[in-house]
Amino acid sequence: MTGALETMGLGKQYGDLWALRDCTLTVPSGRVAALVGPNGAGKSTLLQLASGLNYPSAGVVRVFGLSPRQDPGLVLPRIGFLSQDRPLYRGFTVAEMLTMGKKLNPRWDDALARRRLQHLGIPLKRKAGKLSGGQQSQLALVMALAKRPEFLLLDEPVATFDPLARREFLSMLLEATVEDGLTVLLSSHIINDLERMCDYIIILSAARLTLVGDISEVLDRHKLLISVRRDTDGLEHLHNVVQVTHTERQTTVLARTNGHIWDPSWEVHDVSLEDIVLAYLGQPQRDVPTVTMDRADEEVLR
Amino acid sequence: MIWLTWRQQRLETLIGAALAFMVTVLIIRTGLDLRSAYSTLRIGSCLGQQHLQDPACQNVLSTFQDKILGLSNLSTSLTFLPLLVGVLLAAPMALEMEQGTFRLAWTQSVTRSSWLRVRLTLLIAAAALFGLGMGALLTWWRWPADQVQGRFVTNAFDLEGPVFASYTLFALALGLTVGAMIRRTVPTIGLTLVTFLGIRFGIESWIRPHYIPPIQTAWFSGPPPFGTLDWVVDKGSTWRDGAGHKLSYADVTALCPAPTGGVKDTYVACLHSHRLSEFIYYHPAGRFWLFQGIESAIFVSLSIALLAGAVRWMRYRVT
Asked: How far is residue B31 CA from its own chain's centroid?
């Protein structure tokens, strides 16, 4: 399995503070991967390290097997990056932004860019700084897409979009992944959309990786177990307990199961992705296991 | 990349070009004027130590000096031109850092190294072109005044020859470095102005007189041992008596009280009776190009060091 993005022990330190630490993961080609976590969890840092904007303090990062810092000439033409702050040359007209794209990118698709801008109703003669916030985001996104990248790195792409624009963005992204085999890594706060948009999930919490894996597999393996109030020692022997809640009469466990739950005293329920994400984020840091749930891991578990 | 650089720097370049054009027109007009005064007043025949006592020459020289004096405000303003142009050229980079658009530029297919290479090459070329052209023009402009005042006066030395270009380059390099490090346009401009003026006038006041040791000579009486175009850096702070002992100015006033009003003759007589002569330290006019070379080398070296720092900073620190 070759990954569009592979990291091993990746870390970034600012002074005494680690923005990202011990991050080992793979984003397989052709996936739409969601990067979730609270503010300051290291999402932007990971995206910047992958794009070569930033360099690692520890570990390695590879994009299509290449180092974004050592081989920028080979990596940059193949990636599209949307920064969280949506930088645009404010004094440039939209048409001049496209000229810039054309001059700086060998694979630039001007027709695609113009088509999308026309569809969005963004006038070419308007100055980029005079566009509305949403339009600026759209333009920044068009700039990233028209590069014709194989790997799209998007930092909070839908944060400033209204629901309609969000849905439209989703369908456009799906189209691109199906048609061109595009790999996408996008960070987001809005977990609701992720299940429809993405098929792969990466959860970061407090600069560390807490879960990586295929979304359907993640959904398959995570169960909510309910029983009369009891201890969870037996359960922890066989399965990974993510979160336990005791009430006076009842014990609720969110577990990453490693097979069937045979104990009939546990009532087994499916869990939504949002609940899974929140459970991992809600974990106190010392208890959070770094779990990789790709196929290789599956084999080890068997 | 060239297109992008031009588009980003267009406004500042045009402002700079307009400024350079206006200054050029002003320089050519006043320069032609000064040259015609030089020839109609026949200044050429009054040059040199031997004519200083000639009343006719004293008269035309003072008329001509007044004309030069009338241009001193312009000269002083021109001293700040390299700073202005350097900052003007560096400002778009600070804006790029402030607005974060480098994140857009550096994630296109052009690598950060080649982005920096093209951008800096064009900026340095623009600064050098402006500095050398303007320096040459000002050297032409100053020529008639130089024949009377010499080329070591600050209004001549700072405007003529290669130093003008080296100041422009230094202002650019300083602006780029400060801009990359603090990433705010207005503070960058402010800090660049202050730092530039400090370094530039610090070097002028305290270091320039010592590029090479000045010539030392003792002046007892008679015509001064230095020419009108030489640069006297120190005169009268150390003295020598007849026995060859060194004296300070305080020792001299103890022997011969400083003159007040019209008793100058008795003072001179007193100095003579003690056989006191004063030391003169001066740089002969012929050292002008050597000094220009040394000062240019200093500012070019500073610029190279700053640019190397800015490149390193932008490659590894800016994300």
From this structure: 19
Closest CA to B4 of B109, B86, B135: B109
Domain boundaries, chain B: 2-211+289-316, 215-285
pLDDT at position A171, please?
A: 78
CB atoms near residue A75 (< 10 Å): 23
Neighbours of A40 (CB within 10 A): 14
Interface test with A, best of B102, B108, B116, B119 (most A CBs within 10 A): B108
Report d(CA A173, CA B312) in Å as an integer: 37
Residue A100 distance to chain B (closest CA, Å): 6
**Percent of residues, chain A, with pLDDT higher than 90:** 60
Q: How confident is the model at residue B235 (pLDDT cuts 50, 70, 90)?
A: confident
Cβ–Cβ gap B108/A147 under 8 Å: yes
Of B7, B111, B319, Cβ closest to residue A53: B319
**Integer Rg of chain A from CA:** 21
ipTM of the complex: 0.88
Nearest CA in chain A to B105: A104
Per-residue pLDDT tens digits for B128-170: 999 999 999 999 999 999 999 999 999 999 999 999 999 999 9
Question: Which helix (H) or strand (E) is A227 found in, with range?
Answer: strand A222-228
Residue ranges of domains in chain A, CATH in brackets: 3-206 (3.40.50.300), 217-286+294-301 (no CATH)
- Look at residue B32 in the predicted model and tell me its pLDDT: 96
Percent of chain A with pLDDT over 70: 93
Residue that the structure tokens 């029983």 belong to: A227
CB nearest to A104's CB, from B1, B101, B112: B1
Is residue A248 a contact partner of residue A225, using CB atoms and an 8 Å limit? no
pLDDT at B262: 60
A147 and B109 within 8 Å at the Cβ level: the answer is yes
Q: Which residue of A has its CA nearest to B115?
A: A104
Query: Touching check for A129 and chain B: CB below 8 Å?
Result: no
